[in-house]
Design a protein that fits this description.
Order of helices and strands: HHEHEHEHEHEEHEEHEEEHEEHEEHH
Structural class: alpha/beta
CATH superfamily: NAD(P)-binding Rossmann-like Domain
Shape: globular
CATH topology: Rossmann fold
Helix content: 25-40%
Strand content: 15-25%
Number of helices: 12
Strand order of the largest sheet: 3-2-1-4-5-7-12
């Protein structure tokens, strides 16, 4: 029986090992999805922030489901030691540049695909590279894996800014991305939508806002600025977050909801967090008064994740617990990825 994350939440997360164990603990919907899924699973872009623990969760969910399959992790593996760590968790690694059509064609013929790859930061300086990674690479993959059951990560940046009182954008709302990154992300969605119909590939598209854990994410950005006495801009005054383990679990559970035509679901926590309140809470926990500037805008980039929660249940970890964990983690000088989210960006320029 798999340990439920919600049943045994620690008061603090002591180490990276404990953190990665928590981030890879599968939910019951994730286990059930792996129980009903036939064939091997290929995770594309496993080298990113979410990929390693998501791949490990797939291995653990597969074991809990009593199924025998190979979990492949595909990336260029530029980060030292990552490939060896994944292999130690039972993941078969494959090196591939997803922008090389011939390399994509040589990938193992798995009938289940989880798309994690993408490019966001650096778009303002090289928009063409972002469009290539976000649109051309998915086109290569969907063509090579015609008919594969697919879960593809997207982003809430395909939506416009919406009024705070709206509760966040819903899946049926108008798509009006601002900036090259958001537009290329919409292009990525269109490629997966096309393939779901043209090639009969059952597909689920997850619009994520925003995954967080101890080492990176919107809450870590705010906490570090409080700790360091840096100014926090309040113009993007409200945000969504979701504990990364819950985002990982939702991605696996989404295989049961893949359809042709593609099905789109928002992936976000139930809370709309006020940045001012989050900063003040970190100030209390870290013993530092936050430096706040600017006025909160009446709108923000927000997702309403109710549809997804109806399918795979509520998050196992809420925002207040995550904030407490992060404050403790940072106060003890634990490792950080050093990858700011730029959540405060309102023009879509990354």
């Amino acid at each position: 029986m798999s340990r439920s994350l919600a049943d045994d939440l620690p008061e603090r997360i002591e180490s990276v090992d404990e953190l990665e164990d928590l981030l890879s603990t599968p939910s019951e919907p994730a286990i059930e999805a792996l129980r009903t899924l036939d064939g091997d699973l290929l995770l594309l872009g496993v080298g990113g922030k979410m990929g390693p623990t998501l791949a490990r969760m797939a291995v653990r969910a597969n074991e809990a489901a009593g199924r025998s399959r190979t979990i492949y992790g595909v990336a260029r593996f530029s980060r030292p030691g990552l490939e060896e760590r994944l292999r130690g968790w039972g993941i078969e690694t494959v090196r591939c540049d997803l922008l090389d059509r011939e390399s994509v064609a040589r990938l193992p013929r798995a009938p289940n695909i989880l798309w994690l790859a993408g490019r966001k930061f650096g778009t303002s300086h090289d928009a063409a590279a972002t469009w290539a990674m976000n649109v051309i690479a998915p086109a290569f993959v969907t063509d090579a894996f015609r008919g594969a059951r697919t879960v593809a990560f997207s982003t809430g940046n395909v939506y416009p800014l919406v009024p705070i009182e709206s509760g966040g954008s819903r899946e049926e709302d108008e798509l009006a991305p601002d900036g090259e990154y958001g537009r290329s992300a919409l292009g990525r969605e269109r490629v997966f939508e096309y393939a779901s119909v043209a090639y009969g590939s059952p597909t689920a598209i997850l619009r994520l806002n925003y995954a967080v854990e101890m080492r990176y994410g919107v809450l870590v950005d705010i906490a570090c600025r409080v700790r360091d006495g840096e100014t926090i801009d309040l113009s993007m005054g409200h945000v969504n977050v979701i504990w990364q383990a819950d985002a990982n679990a939702a991605a696996l559970a989404a295989f049961q909801h893949a359809r042709s035509p593609a099905r789109t679901m928002n992936l976000a926590g139930p809370e709309i967090l006020r940045v001012r309140d989050v900063a003040n809470r970190f100030g209390e926990l870290l013993g530092r008064a936050p430096r706040l500037e600017g006025e909160e805008s009446p709108d923000a980039l927000l997702n309403n994740g109710a549809r997804g929660r109806e399918l795979w249940g509520p998050p196992r970890v809420g925002a207040e617990r995550i904030i407490e964990w992060i404050a403790d983690w940072i106060a003890r000088g634990q490792p950080l990825h050093g990858l700011p989210t730029h959540f405060e960006e309102r023009s879509g320029a990354f």
